[in-house]
Every structure is written in C-alpha cells, then in structure tokens.
Amino acid sequence: MSIKTTWTLACFLAVGAPLGASEPLSVAQAIRRAWTDQAGLKAGQAMVESRQAEADGFRDLRLPTLTLGAHGLRTNEPMMAFGIKLNQSRIGMMDFNPLTLNHPDAITAYGGSAVIQQPLYAGGRLTAAKRAGEYMAQAEQASQERRKQEVAQMVVEAYFGTQVAEQALRWVDDTRMWIQGMEDFVGARVNQGLMLESELQRLKSFHAQADAQKADVIKQVRSARSGLGLLTGAGPVEGPLATPLVPEQPAIAQGATYRGDLVAADFQAKAAGEGAKAAQGSLRPEVGLEVGAGTLHHSWSEKGSWTWAAVGVKWKVFSAPDVAKANAARAQERAALQMRSFRQQQAEHEVRVAREAVLAAEAKYSAAQQSLVAAQESKRLREARHREGLAPLIEVLDAEAAIQGARTLILQSLFDLRVSRAGLDLATGNPIEGVNP
C-alpha cells in the first residue's frame, strides 16, 4: 500500500473530539484526548453503563415486589353487588331477600390494595440470570478497553501519517529550491551560448512537476491534519507534532498481556452458559410467597379491610416453547465457546503477523537509508560533472528522481514501522506507544 493510500485510510478511519490549535501535541496526548473526547468511545462507555444497569436488574430479581392498587366502581350486577357489600362489611338480613339478591340497587365502592410478592425458588433461574448479567457487564467493560486500544492504533496512524506528509512537503520544497538554483545556473550558461535552450526548458518542465507535486502534498497534509483532528477533536490540528517520526527505542519482542476482546469473549461464553441454566430452570417448579392487604369503602366510615398470605407452587410440566428456548440457549452456549476458541486462535495469528510486519518495516527502513545515501552521492557526482560540461542534464535529473524515490521509501518504511509497532502492541495487548487507559 502506498503512503498516499495509507494517509487516506487514516483520515477516513478517524472519529472524535477537538484539539488545541497551537501547543505541541505528542502522540500520547493525542491518544488520551481521543479516549476522553471521542464520541464513539463515549457511546461505548454508555453501553458499559447500560450493561451494568441490566446486571443490577438481574441481581434484584430476588428482591420482593410491592404492588399498590386503587380502584373505584359502581355496579348493580347481582354477584358483584353482594360481594362488594360483603367486602365493605355491611351485609344485613335484608341483603338475603331473594328480591334484593336478584335485583340489587346500584352500589358504589372504592378502595385499594397492597401486595408483596417474594420468589422463594425459581429452578435456579434467578441465580443464573444474576451471574449472566454480571458476566455481560464485565464483557462490555473489556470490550470498551479493547475499543480504546483500537482507537489508539488509529491515532498512531493518523498522527504519523501527518508527520510523513509534512516531511514530504519539506523535501518537495528542497527539490524546488534545488531546481531553481539549477535554472539560474543553466539559464546563465544558455545566455552565454554554452548550453542549449532545450536544457533550460527541460528544467522548467521538471520545476512544473515539482510544483504540481507540492500542491498534491499540501492537500495530503491538510487532509491528514483534519483526519487527526477528527479522531481526537472537532477541527483540524494546527500545532506542531512533538513525537518524532523516527522511533527513539528499538522494538522489543512483546509477550501477550491483556487483550480486551479475548477477555470479553471469555465472559460472553460464561454468560451464555448461565443463560442456558436460566432457560433450563423454566422447566422446573417455582415457589413463591404472596402477602397482601386490601380495603373497600362505601363511605369514609363504612368500609371493610382484609389481609392474606399464601405460598404457591407452579410447575410447567411440559411446555414445547420453553423446551425449544432451552435447546436454543444450549446452542448459544456452544457457539460462544467456539467463538472464544476462534478468537484465541485469531489473536495468536495476529501476533505472528504483527511481529513479521515489524521486522519487515525495520529491514525496509535500513535499506531505504542506504539507498538515500547512495542516491545523494550519485547526484553530487553527476551534478559536478554537469557543471563541468561532462554529463548531460538528464543524468542529473535522473539522480534527483532517484533521491526522491529513496526519500519516499524512507517515509513509507518509517510510517510502516510506527504503525506495525502499534499493531504488535494491539495484537499482544500491550499499551500502544506506552500509553495506558
């Protein structure tokens, strides 16, 4: 992948919150700002809080439920009229008159009730649901930590992609200054009749190409800074970038430490196991306690009150939907276990690939340095020969093109080195650029 493509990807991958405009910004500061201000990570934190609230709800399933009720009615339905009078504690002998029983006058009543229900045994569903909720909350927290590390890797790409673009711009300016000097020299020799006009025109063509290249690189710089600002803030980054592009320390072989996605997969598998237990519990008997009190008024002074307490058992001896749900829950548990195993294998593969990427980037950077030294020496010799009239201008321009190619290779290899190191940290679960959440 070319540097230009990598810059573009870094810009499109970016998401986030504002940066300061003028103070130097280190890559560590950029990562921490993204963790603090990025809307995507804020949404992830809200998901963590949501899962925790759900876990609290599952935990509280064992607590009693209090239900308050209030009602008022007016009816002359015979059975209800007799029952209401009975509940109001105002049944008299006349109420047993067949005529009154069959054709009662309309009666008005209002009252209320309070009922407490306490589950005593639910086939293990309550305990399983509580544990499943706790595991899902822990899984979401681990996933959030992983998201933070992924964002940190994206910041590294955008940050050093910006530095690559800015270094390319400085080198383009160097090339333009060199071309201008060559134009002055060749123009003077043309005026003296010592060189052909075609030599000067060739330089002007080369100069125009450099100008076009500069315009393209300026666009890349602005896009890269905008992308970094989008990742960590609301606007383009204007200040200098403090962390050097060349790594200060050699790469260290890292062992795997903490990977949030693997921890999350483990918790998800445990939650699925508890979900299977909860689904199986729906096929077992339930035992519950209910305690209540009620009152029914005819007037403020004419009323009846009562209480009750009951222990009940309910058992779905057979329920095809519940059996199907239990089977589905067991299948989900197997799927979660297999996914945990696959993610572990995937993580091991990512570590191997990331280590190879670091080694390749280091080798490419070393080769690019040697190539640049050779290209600069070749240009120096050819330019000296050209000034003496011993070599054509095309050889000097070829040498300059070789230098530009070597510089591009250096920038690409440095960018790959920083990004591959971040990728290795991400794969092994180590802090990216040494920054801990």
Structural commentary:
The protein has 437 residues and is of the alpha+beta class. It has a single domain, classed as Outer membrane efflux proteins (OEP), CATH 1.20.1600. Helices cover 66% and strands 11% of the residues. The protein is built from 10 helices and 4 strands. The chain has helices spanning 3-13, 27-37, 39-59, 78-87, 98-102, 125-191, 197-232, 260-281, 320-387, 393-428, and strands at residues 65-75, 107-121, 286-297, 303-314. Strands 1-2-3-4 form a 4-stranded antiparallel beta sheet. Helix 1 packs parallel to helix 7 (197-232), helix 2 (27-37) packs across helix 6 and helix 6 runs antiparallel to helix 7.
Topology (elements, then pairings):
Blueprint: H1 3-13, H2 27-37, H3 39-59, E1 65-75, H4 78-87, H5 98-102, E2 107-121, H6 125-191, H7 197-232, H8 260-281, E3 286-297, E4 303-314, H9 320-387, H10 393-428
Antiparallel strand pairs: 1-2, 2-3, 3-4
Question: Can you tag this structure with a few keywords?
Answer:
437 residues, alpha+beta, Outer membrane efflux proteins (OEP), four-stranded antiparallel beta sheet, 10 helices, 4 strands, 11% strand, elongated, disordered N terminus
